[in-house]
């Protein structure tokens, strides 16, 4: 079974994340989404459970999309992919690449006020 892995904070899950997962699923049998469980803050307003629900709502098929909890409270995480041995960089269209979760969070905070 071919498996793609996607790691992130997903604060919040947005169209760019969704397109990456869809690309992974188009090339693989399943996608393992590793969700970093960061401490909540202005930069990380959503709990792990909320983000897991966002991902599951967008990708309800548990056989194709697995969600894994990656605890890194307080960690300064760097993701290494090793040398070029089959790892792919997902390249999306320019408009999708420009999506910023920072801007989405700012809009969410503005709407709360």
Count of DSSP strands: 3
Q: Into which percentage range does the β-strand content fall?
A: 15-25%
Percent of residues in helical segments?
25-40%
Distance between the termini: 47 Å
Helix/strand order, N-terminal first: EHEHEHH
- Which of globular, elongated, flat, extended, rod-shaped describes the shape? globular
Helical stretch tally: 4
Strand order of the largest sheet: 1-2-3
Rg measurement, Å: 15 Å
Uncertain runs with pLDDT below 50, 5 residues or more?
none
Mean pLDDT: 85
Structural class: alpha/beta
For the largest beta-sheet, the strand count, sense and barrel status come to: 3 strands, parallel
Q: How would you characterize this protein structure?
A:
The protein is an alpha/beta fold and 113 residues long. The chain is built from four helices and three strands, in the order βαβαβαα. A three-stranded parallel β-sheet has the order 1-2-3.
């Amino acid at each position: 079974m071919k498996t793609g892995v996607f790691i992130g904070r997903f604060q919040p899950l947005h169209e760019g994340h969704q397109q990456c997962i869809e690309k992974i699923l188009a090339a693989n049998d399943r996608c393992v989404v590793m969700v970093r469980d960061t401490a909540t803050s202005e930069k990380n307003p959503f709990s792990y459970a909320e983000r897991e629900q966002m991902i599951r709502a967008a990708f309800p098929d548990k056989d194709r999309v697995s969600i894994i909890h990656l605890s890194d409270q307080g960690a300064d995480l760097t993701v290494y992919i090793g040398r070029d041995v089959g790892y792919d960089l997902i390249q999306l269209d320019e408009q999708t690449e420009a999506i910023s979760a920072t801007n989405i969070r700012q809009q969410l905070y503005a709407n709360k006020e």
